[in-house]
Amino acid sequence: MDAMNPMNKKVRVGVVGASGYSGEELVRLLLRHPGVDLTSITSRQYAGQTLAQIYPRFASYPLAGALRFSEPNVSSLAQQAEVVFLALPHGVAAEFAEPLLRLGRRIIDLSADFRLRKAEVYREFYGHDHPCPRLLAEAVYGLPEVYREAIRTANLVAAAGCYPTSILLPLIPLLRAGLIDPHGLIADSLSGVSGAGRKAEPDYLFVECNESLRAYGLPKHRHLSEIEQELSAAAGRDVVLQFTPHLVPVNRGILTTLYASPREPVGDAGARESFQQNVQACYRSAYLAEPFVRVLEGKSLPDTKNIVGTNVIEFAWRLDPRTNRLVVISAIDNLTKGASGQGVQCLNLMCGFPEETGLPI
Amino acid sequence: MDAMNPMNKKVRVGVVGASGYSGEELVRLLLRHPGVDLTSITSRQYAGQTLAQIYPRFASYPLAGALRFSEPNVSSLAQQAEVVFLALPHGVAAEFAEPLLRLGRRIIDLSADFRLRKAEVYREFYGHDHPCPRLLAEAVYGLPEVYREAIRTANLVAAAGCYPTSILLPLIPLLRAGLIDPHGLIADSLSGVSGAGRKAEPDYLFVECNESLRAYGLPKHRHLSEIEQELSAAAGRDVVLQFTPHLVPVNRGILTTLYASPREPVGDAGARESFQQNVQACYRSAYLAEPFVRVLEGKSLPDTKNIVGTNVIEFAWRLDPRTNRLVVISAIDNLTKGASGQGVQCLNLMCGFPEETGLPI
Amino acid sequence: MDAMNPMNKKVRVGVVGASGYSGEELVRLLLRHPGVDLTSITSRQYAGQTLAQIYPRFASYPLAGALRFSEPNVSSLAQQAEVVFLALPHGVAAEFAEPLLRLGRRIIDLSADFRLRKAEVYREFYGHDHPCPRLLAEAVYGLPEVYREAIRTANLVAAAGCYPTSILLPLIPLLRAGLIDPHGLIADSLSGVSGAGRKAEPDYLFVECNESLRAYGLPKHRHLSEIEQELSAAAGRDVVLQFTPHLVPVNRGILTTLYASPREPVGDAGARESFQQNVQACYRSAYLAEPFVRVLEGKSLPDTKNIVGTNVIEFAWRLDPRTNRLVVISAIDNLTKGASGQGVQCLNLMCGFPEETGLPI
Amino acid sequence: MDAMNPMNKKVRVGVVGASGYSGEELVRLLLRHPGVDLTSITSRQYAGQTLAQIYPRFASYPLAGALRFSEPNVSSLAQQAEVVFLALPHGVAAEFAEPLLRLGRRIIDLSADFRLRKAEVYREFYGHDHPCPRLLAEAVYGLPEVYREAIRTANLVAAAGCYPTSILLPLIPLLRAGLIDPHGLIADSLSGVSGAGRKAEPDYLFVECNESLRAYGLPKHRHLSEIEQELSAAAGRDVVLQFTPHLVPVNRGILTTLYASPREPVGDAGARESFQQNVQACYRSAYLAEPFVRVLEGKSLPDTKNIVGTNVIEFAWRLDPRTNRLVVISAIDNLTKGASGQGVQCLNLMCGFPEETGLPI
């Protein structure tokens, strides 16, 4: 595949595990993508049925009546697709990634399996040995705003997760610029229920989630491992994050509120003013040219309804003059910029398409 | 009124401003209260109409067909009621409180007008002079778990607000016991939309709130003034709080996540264990006998659906061994324990009723 | 048990199958019921755990920490309870009802198992033989507004279902009075998701129900059997109903829109006026004294939010002068008047308590 | 403008009244439309502000930062746009339509002002004289599946309304084919809250709509006038419809359940079978080639979540063998196929673009 693909040749793409919410969102994006030929979708549960039968919402696409779910099979996938998305539960991706890579296919994995660089961190957070530690060195963390060049030529991309994206994009430029203290960072996140996946468990029934607000997974959520890995890389030293995820009754969307202290004292008005100019300059330099990052200026604050269904992250920040603390609030769609849209953005880079191709803003 | 009211004589009660959500919730509680004779409800907007006409949900109470909203009038209120609730927007309560107190009536104010002890703090946060600063000294802060004895004999009670209740009840015992550092406290709160009142503004339309997550009022929310006043009183020194309120799509309920640092280092396992025992002992001592405070032990975390419609606050806490920070999460119903139920709890104390009377748990 | 119970002696009550939404609502009502001593709750799934552990929302009731779920067992139930509620899935109630009745206990069954009078209708709608057809003759249909006297002395009451209640109470008086044509009746119903029970199936996940409107179960819903049985009894002839249930994203509540034709022509204004007077008189005569029936007059239309959490049915009617059709719209809480509240109303009748005891209005 | 526009020349389009929900949805569609150059948006309320300021969700479109709302002005509109959309409240469109038409501009009106053919019907349903009856004869009813050819060359198109679309598309082919009785038709509709517009009225506040189900506007909703006009045209005789709209807590979506009787008796299995074949053939003939109509076959039933955000109508039908009545259930997005998407579909016809251009399926 040519990194300079002029899109006059479509890329053949397969999706393994297309039955969860991320898989469904991925199919939605790929059906509309002008450079993609979706040739294969697999699902043990739905094998033999058409896309239209399982997802009536896609039924008006001609392909949806023709394309059938198949049992996942490495050799047919390798035949049918140049790039394969893995939208599988954590822990299962390796069994497809390894043989497909060996056969020369490129992989975009939406699970957490290849996001960590160190197998021992994986074991600490996931409670078992990594199934294929050899590949961790080869995998590129799929956060295009940070690893764009490496993604272009990668064969194995591990698309960044939803909470991580909402936390990393606002914090990384500030840590790199040394503007905030890497100590004492706090992330307080709200997530829509699709973040839990299409799992038929009582906790995620309508009646249990509607009119309910609750925290969960305290205090050591698995996503912390990849978040801290990337924050540490940006800070040049070990970062430990306080992270509290909450479940709130919306379908899609993550809103994260971040608390950080300026590294230099901002005890007087002049120092505060100067700090604010530095933050503004830092964000403009990092993100002004980014198609999917929207740093709000003026009085606006993020609202998930402004980004749901798009691949955009929007965020705003305030220096609180009463506490001298920096508060940053970010919003993403957990299924798009937090999963499948991110994956398609990586696909665009890997295939030489314009980065915005097929991605709603 | 006898502090030993054996409830064989009902207390005549009036409600000024019964047309907002707090007023409606108050009417709901008073209609079911065995010690209360609801004699007067006022509303400029609804004057002349019956309770049943305005609130069809109360129509099966015989009183609802008979009781009519009247224009608010101090002398008729004084004639009809021994205790008067004020459920008015901020800034209006004083014009009723002052003359009614002079006529010997007792007042329970649900607004923020009499919650602050210092008129200059009021001016700082509300942007204008307090209309009746003389009464600030007389008013008692209506948080029964903290000011129970003073409330019994008070003539003017300023019921604690919704965010403040969710923050103060978890933090005050820890600050009093010197277990946490009064510096660096953070409160990250989620509120249902009824917290905004029955205001016909575009921001609170169904379509604007549903499938929306957003922060607001950054960084200096008005409630900070009363929260910091009470935290400072508990800590014995000035406390400045970082506070971020969010609007989320539920009707009722507040979920607050609090972040605090232990005052003594908890760098090793032994110190952590000892700190946790102290926190548990502190909460048991403060709240084991409280009818409306539920400190969750074991693995449970608060969920607003467990307390909506009740006067209960429930909370849980965790010491995070990775950050050595204490995280406390609390849940209340903003209209009940956060407003009208709190007011009725104060009423019970003032009238010598058992404190739980008429209050759902 | 004395039909003139002065409530100075509590009735010992057991609940079999307290783990679904109806069971939970039943426990809520029984915990607050002044004449009930809840002595036994059973659940295979939760056996050994306390009520407070499974339902944290009840944790502030002293009983909730003490009462434990047990495995369902006929002889212990018979020892511990005088009246036993069965809150089980359809088809299972008989195995408890039969032996408990033999041991002299009284039964209130919330399932559909004993609502039909004819075993062959049961077989037609439920697809298998009735497990205990002998008891069908003995069972009383638990709709107090229709079968009050029979319920008082019954030993086996089959509480009317949710859709049936919303349809029967508005139509029965009109059919009895011969005001509407028993032909061509239509019921179009909307139900909140708790109506599906606490079933961990993908269809009832938050993400599948939120922002979704859908019909289901067309065209022959099981509830039709009991609805048509009771409509036919009221009309004195066989009635066939067109019934379309819909699932809509609220937790609780049923809204039913009924379409019926006047039996006598109403082609001119005079006939319409006279028909309307007859309907009004018919409803007043049937329901003016009923504590839980609210027939709206004037311009008001039902809204489920006015009755959720209560045992009230409210409804309004209009004669459409353009079509000469009568439209009646009713609202109930499917878990209260549509299930557990109805059961408690039956309990009150069976035990000689005032009928409103312990039931919210 | 050439009816054979090869889309190598963009059409300049203006939107008058872009501040409501339909206006916002229209802007969303036009921003993504490859054949449109959005040159002008007007709003009295927002004049002077950019599109990005008022609708942050569009902020990542370069145009959104540049395009400003202006005061509505006929001559600037005529200068800037070849086609003008009117997204105004009912009763206001005429004052723009008349002069713009005179200046040779083409109009797509989303209001009800030009949907009726007879000024006297307008007066009956809207309570005042039509402001510009002369134009009624010129206007084409904007339902492309029915009036495609007339729309291509029309200068004034009155896009069909939301409830009407959900009712007309399923019923018109059956009436034209004489398969159903034009007497006794019933439409029972559920609408999301955006159908009420962005009106800051208490009835549409989040707290009033969430957890609420209610009917409204009984028995003579204004939309009946256009629905009955078009049903009558299809049936070749006067049709009177029973119509009950309900408000339910979703943002977008209409679900309509239609009840109709077969014109010929279907009393035996053979007649029913034959009727069903006729209905299937009728719908296939009418809609198999339509890009935005999806007639579900097999067991599927419509669900609004399958069509929200798209320009698709999906519907399913059942002949109930117990009542011999035909039940048809349809789903559309009230803002897309029910308003703005329909308008863009008309635009595509008027400008010679492929009909699907810029419209999500």
Structure report:
The structure is a homotetramer of 361-residue chains. Chain A is α/β, with parallel strands linked by helices. Chain A has 2 domains: 11-159 and 338-351, Rossmann fold (3-Layer(aba) Sandwich), CATH 3.40.50.720; 163-334, Dihydrodipicolinate Reductase, domain 2, CATH 3.30.360.10. Chain A contains 12 helices and 14 strands. In chain A, the strands form 2 sheets. Chain A has a 7-stranded parallel sheet with strand order 3-2-1-4-5-7-6, sandwiched between helices. In chain A, strands 9-10-8-11-14-13-12 form a 7-stranded mixed sheet. In chain A, helix 7 (144-153) runs parallel beside helix 12 (336-351) and helix 8 runs parallel beside helix 10 (224-235). The radius of gyration of chain A is 20 Å and the shape is globular. Chain A starts with 10 loop residues before the first strand and ends in a 10-residue tail after the last helix. Chains in contact: A-B, A-C, A-D, B-C, B-D, C-D. The interface between C and D is large, with 44 and 45 residues.
Quick recap:
Chain A is α/β, with parallel strands linked by helices. Chain A has twelve helices and 14 strands.
At the first level of CATH, the class of the largest domain in chain A is: Alpha Beta
Q: Report the oligomer.
A: homotetramer
Sheet/helix structural class of chain A: alpha/beta
The CATH homology group name of the largest domain in chain A? Dihydrodipicolinate Reductase, domain 2
What share of residues are in beta strands of chain A? Answer: 15-25%
CA-CA gap between termini of chain A:
27 Å
Largest sheet features of chain A: 7 strands, parallel
Spatial strand order of the main sheet of chain A: 3-2-1-4-5-7-6
At CATH level 3, the topology of the largest domain in chain A is Dihydrodipicolinate Reductase, domain 2
- Give the count of helical stretches of chain A: 12
Largest interface: C-D, 44 and 45 residues
Give the averaged pLDDT of chain A, no decimals: 95
Shape of chain A: globular
Number of domains of chain A: 2
CATH architecture of the largest domain in chain A: 2-Layer Sandwich
- Low-pLDDT parts of chain A are none
